[in-house]
């Protein structure tokens, strides 16, 4: 189940807004009362606060985005730093690094593409 943050991010993007620019204009909260996360305040200029029903439509794409974020994180860990990648290219050649990257991408495939 996609998090409220992810669904709100996708909702904002569907209205040509950027999460990083708008997150300061809203407050997501969980009162630890078993009611779950909710939007406590919404001050996004030009975009109405989404209803629960509207956010529910982002469940599937939110699940995909969250799964892909895990994949990206795993890939980055295995790629190593840019310095390590450059060192591998210099020592072993570009084709070797491309093969290594392809192997990592195959190991951690993205979904929903």
Shape: elongated
Considering DSSP H and I runs of 4 or more, what fraction of the residues is helical? 55-70%
Structural class: mainly alpha
The profile of the biggest β sheet is: 2 strands, antiparallel
Summarize model confidence as the mean pLDDT.
Answer: 95
Description:
There is one protein chain. This protein is mostly helical and 113 residues long. It has 2 domains: 1-57, no CATH class; 66-113, no CATH class. It contains 6 helices and 2 strands; from the N terminus they run ααββαααα. It has helices at residues 4-14, 19-22, 52-56, 59-79, 82-92, 94-107; strands at residues 26-30, 37-42. Strand 1 (26-30) and strand 2 (37-42) form a beta hairpin. Helix 5 crosses helix 6 (94-107). The radius of gyration is 19 Å and the shape is elongated. The mean pLDDT is 95.
Quick tags:
113 residues, two-stranded antiparallel sheet, 6 helices, elongated
Q: What's the short story on this structure?
A:
By secondary structure, the protein is mainly α. It folds into two domains: 57 residues, no CATH class; 48 residues, no CATH class.
Topology diagram in text:
Elements: H1 4-14, H2 19-22, E1 26-30, E2 37-42, H3 52-56, H4 59-79, H5 82-92, H6 94-107
Antiparallel strand pairs: 1-2
């Amino acid at each position: 189940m996609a998090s409220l943050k992810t669904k709100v991010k996708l909702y904002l993007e569907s209205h040509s807004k950027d999460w990083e620019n708008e997150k300061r204009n809203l407050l997501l909260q969980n009162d630890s009362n078993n009611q779950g996360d909710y939007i406590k305040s919404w001050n996004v200029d030009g975009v109405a606060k989404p209803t629960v029903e509207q956010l529910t439509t982002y469940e599937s794409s939110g699940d995909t985005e969250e799964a892909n974020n895990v994949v990206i994180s795993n890939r980055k860990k295995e790629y190593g730093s840019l310095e390590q990648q450059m060192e591998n290219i210099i020592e072993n050649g570009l084709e070797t690094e491309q093969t290594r990257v392809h192997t990592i991408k195959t190991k951690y495939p993205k979904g929903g593409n």
